[in-house]
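Treating backbone geometry as a discrete language has practical consequences that deserve illustration. Part of our work consisted of pairing the sequence of a single chain with a tokenised description of its backbone. We regard such an encoding as a compact summary of how the chain folds. The amino acid sequence and the backbone structure tokens for this protein are reproduced below.
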Amino acid sequence: MNTNKKILLTGITGFVGMQTAIQLLEKGYQVTGTLRDAKKIPATQEVIARHTSNIENLHFAEADLNDENIWKDLMRGMDYVQHIASPFPKTIPKNEDDLILPARKGTLSIVSAAAQNNVKRIVSTNLKKNTRLNKRRVWNLIFA
């Protein structure tokens, strides 16, 4: 299958992100994977390249989940978004809101940027449990 459809994949360095990238590349999509640290690009690319011959369709972008402006730029020209990223601190926080609030803010930034750029579809693996989003607010962001 050959497609020119572009997908922004957040959280490409994790296990689920890499597996998702491989599947999308095998289906012929142009994938831009986001990661927090560009130093992880070579290792991530190497692992993914072992499992697909379509590695030339993979691109990377360094992005912080809570940087609202970067998502507006990254969404330009994208057809779809697969949102897998979530903040993962080096130590376990004492308060669950230290994880939930940044995840919610990041997800809202991504949804808002996607809506502003007429992205056709957003698939998120963390909307329901991890971020406690108000469904009406998300609906209004997408269709406002």
Q: What stands out?
A: The two ends are 34 Å apart (CA to CA).
